[in-house]
Amino acid sequence: MDFSVQKVNEVTLFEINGDMWGNPDMFKIIDETKAQLEKGERKFLVDLKKTKRLDSTGVGILIHMLTSVKNAEGELRLCEVTGKTKAALSVTGVWQIFEIHGTREEALRSYTGF
What we know:
Layout: E1 2-8, E2 11-17, H1 28-38, E3 43-50, H2 56-71, E4 75-79, H3 83-91, E5 99-101, H4 104-112
Parallel strand pairs: 2-3, 3-4, 4-5
Antiparallel strand pairs: 1-2
Helix pairs in contact: 1-2
């Protein structure tokens, strides 16, 4: 698993590539979230299109990101959540705490209201 971070207009986009499943590199996402918050970023989007599996550690990392961003008075949204990733969020009961969009474009538009 790896991830990339890019700025799309005023939104910081995390694109997760690979499974969030028992990989110690997943914790780097938390460090990067903190670094982006320290730079003043407050709008975040996590694209899970290329993530096929998510275990409890992966769910915990997403919750940690959400909590950190909310504590900094920011917003974090998810997009492209499908298959086993969607099932993991549903089974763990955290599906409803995230704002989730079907596509990246829809999620990005949700920040601007257009």
